[in-house]
């Protein structure tokens, strides 16, 4: 397969579109946790119970369409090779947790990969809906109508006082986790993140790395989401998150301008050194690759680097993950082999730009 | 110091193993430590949930006779009749077993929710369409009642009369729906 074709398949169609403020906000996501009223939660359920959950999706939603979400595919974890699961995790379509449920775990994915429904994760149902850029309200609206569509066929566990009942008390109420993925290189360079993160935490929001709980902020990409799910409406939660994200966008833009004015040549040097590393290295670890990709993307956003498309960060952050590298190579690779493949793939991708 | 495994990267992790009194030291880079299984993948060991379950126990009385005392606590023997999860199990795993657990453990949940959700204990968000018809009605009625109060305060009596009629209409509908169910 040519690299161009591989990229086309690897990058979710929705991610190729531009959204608001997409120079800083890479994507917006709404996740809703739901459970069946009469079936025990995954933690204590028998395999038969969870099989029933799966059957409901098999019978009612497989190959169905809803609005712009066409032809839902139902993929069982049991049918997938470990590498294929890893690829789905790296595309954020499933969680590592779901990948481990080989008996009854499954995922329902729309053709454009904008909606995925994890089945038999910690909760019976976890709806995830993505939008490119900063579009939390759109994401909430569509996630909610999609949720209504599922509810036509499913009796949700719901209580007037407690809201949507979930396996973990941290999700009860709205069952909603709204999040945005942000590229904040200038706030990191100017060492403001250390000050900002605790402030954000105090507002009931959480800052994490790109691959969720406990992960590092590779490539200066941060995920910001709500912590509280009970006692606030979905709209208020999204509003609160939105206002914080707006402030972060502004601060990041200010920081970028300040660096450009105060130490333009140093920044230019940093950006082009990283470009050089990506364009010429033969062995590169993922940490270094993400750092350089972040620098190059910053260079593109500030107009220092031209003729390289700004989707390169989003694309290569995903493509250079271990799962994708192995899928592209069509074999299992040792970490050392991956570092070589990663370097090759990045060089090839940059060459595509020149054509 | 360089990593003794790959002999390329610098060693950032230093392990000391004592097996049968024999001490060995291992110096590895992060990469090789992962490969050799010296490091645990964080996800499985120390999660938010293990932290949380620690919080759940905060209201149990300090034990006098070690860990055994928890079994004397009457609420620990509370058991959900649907999924058979006990309150004790719930505090250990930090997860509910089924929807009914919320009812069974209801009176002990307030402090937990308050801690996890900054003082909130009552849902104020979406209500499912199909499952929540009656709830929807009651909610609309309450909203109208708040509006009615405002209108009366502002002395907009004409509008207030309209709102009052709407409330009556909705309450009638709610009563009919309930009768229809039974």
From TrEMBL, chain A:
GO biological process assignments: phosphocreatine biosynthetic process
Coiled-coil features, chain-numbered ranges: none
Keyword field contains DNA damage: no
Highest rank taxon of the organism: Bacteria
One cellular-component annotation, GO: extracellular space
Activity regulation (UniProt): Appears to be allosterically activated by the binding of pArg-containing polypeptides to the pArg-binding pocket localized in the C-terminal domain of McsB.
Gene Ontology MF term list: ATP binding; creatine kinase activity; protein arginine kinase activity
EC identifiers of the protein: 2.7.14.1
One Pfam family of this chain: ATP-gua_Ptrans
Residues in Phosphagen kinase C-terminal domain copies: 24-255
Reactions this protein catalyses: L-arginyl-[protein] + ATP = N(omega)-phospho-L-arginyl-[protein] + ADP + H(+)
PANTHER family: ARGININE KINASE 1-RELATED, ARGININE OR CREATINE KINASE
Function: Catalyzes the specific phosphorylation of arginine residues in a large number of proteins. Is part of the bacterial stress response system. Protein arginine phosphorylation has a physiologically important role and is involved in the regulation of many critical cellular processes, such as protein homeostasis, motility, competence, and stringent and stress responses, by regulating gene expression and protein activity.
Name of the featured protein: Protein-arginine kinase
Higher taxonomy: Bacteria, Bacillati, Bacillota, Bacilli, Bacillales
UniProtKB/TrEMBL annotation, chain B:
UniProtKB keywords: Coiled coil, Kinase, Transferase
A GO MF term: kinase activity
Pfam families membership: UVR
Record-annotated membrane-spanning stretches: none
Domain UVR: 138-173
PROSITE patterns assigned to the protein according to its UniProt record, in alphabetical order: UVR
Coiled-coil features, chain-numbered ranges: 134-180
Keyword Kinase (UniProt): yes
Gene Ontology biological process terms in this record: stress response to cadmium ion; stress response to copper ion
PANTHER family assigned to the protein according to its UniProt record, in alphabetical order: PROTEIN-ARGININE KINASE ACTIVATOR PROTEIN
Protein name, per record: Protein arginine kinase activator
């Amino acid at each position: 397969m040519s690299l161009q074709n591989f990229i086309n398949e690897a990058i979710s169609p929705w991610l190729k579109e531009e959204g608001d403020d997409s120079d800083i906000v890479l994507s917006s996501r709404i996740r809703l946790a739901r459970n069946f009223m009469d079936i025990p939660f995954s933690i204590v359920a028998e395999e038969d119970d969870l099989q029933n959950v799966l059957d409901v999706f098999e019978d009612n939603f497989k190959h169905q369409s809803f609005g712009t979400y066409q032809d839902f595919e139902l993929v069982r974890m049991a049918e997938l090779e470990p590498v294929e699961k890893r690829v789905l995790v790296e595309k954020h379509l499933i969680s590592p947790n779901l990948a481990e449920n080989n008996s009854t775990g499954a995922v329902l994915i729309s053709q454009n990969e904008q909606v995925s429904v994890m089945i038999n994760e910690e909760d019976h149902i976890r709806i995830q809906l993505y939008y490119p850029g900063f579009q939390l309200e759109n994401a909430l609206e569509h996630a909610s109508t999609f949720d209504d569509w599922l509810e036509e066929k499913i009796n949700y566990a719901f209580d007037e006082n407690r809201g949507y009942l979930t396996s973990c008390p941290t999700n009860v109420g709205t069952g909603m986790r709204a999040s945005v993925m942000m590229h904040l290189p200038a706030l990191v360079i100017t060492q403001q993140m250390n000050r900002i993160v605790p402030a954000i935490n105090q507002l009931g929001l959480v800052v994490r790395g790109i691959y969720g709980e406990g992960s590092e902020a590779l490539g200066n990409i941060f995920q910001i989401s709500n912590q509280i799910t009970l006692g606030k409406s979905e709209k208020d939660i999204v509003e609160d998150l939105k206002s914080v994200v707006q402030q972060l966008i502004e601060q990041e833009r200010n920081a970028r301008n300040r660096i450009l004015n105060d130490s333009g040549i140093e920044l230019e040097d940093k950006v082009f050194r990283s470009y050089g590393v990506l364009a010429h290295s033969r062995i590169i670890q993922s940490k270094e690759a993400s750092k350089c990709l972040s620098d190059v993307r910053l260079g593109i956003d500030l107009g220092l680097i031209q003729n390289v498309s700004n989707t390169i960060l989003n694309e290569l952050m995903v493509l250079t993950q271990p799962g994708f590298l192995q899928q592209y190579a069509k074999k299992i690779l040792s970490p050392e082999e991956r570092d070589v493949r990663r370097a090759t793939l990045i060089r090839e991708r940059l060459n595509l730009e020149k054509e | 110091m360089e990593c003794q495994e790959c002999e390329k990267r610098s060693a950032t992790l230093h392990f000391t193993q004592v097996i049968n009194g024999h001490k060995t030291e291992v110096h590895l880079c992060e990469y090789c430590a992962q490969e050799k299984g010296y490091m645990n993948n964080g996800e499985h060991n120390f999660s938010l949930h293990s932290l949380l379950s620690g919080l759940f126990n905060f209201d149990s009385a300090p034990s006098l006779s070690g860990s055994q005392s928890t079994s004397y606590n009457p609420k620990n023997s509370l058991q959900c009749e649907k999924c058979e999860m006990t309150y004790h199990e719930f505090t250990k795993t930090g997860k509910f077993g089924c929807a009914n657990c919320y009812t069974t453990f209801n009176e002990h949940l307030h402090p937990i929710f308050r801690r996890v959700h900054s003082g909130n204990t009552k849902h104020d968000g979406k209500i499912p369409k199909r499952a929540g018809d009656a709830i929807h009605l009651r909610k609309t009625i309450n909203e109208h009642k708040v509006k009615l109060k405002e209108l009366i305060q502002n002395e907009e009596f004409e509008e207030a009369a309209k709102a009052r009629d709407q409330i009556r209409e909705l309450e009638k509908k709610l009563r009919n729906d309930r009768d229809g169910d039974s």
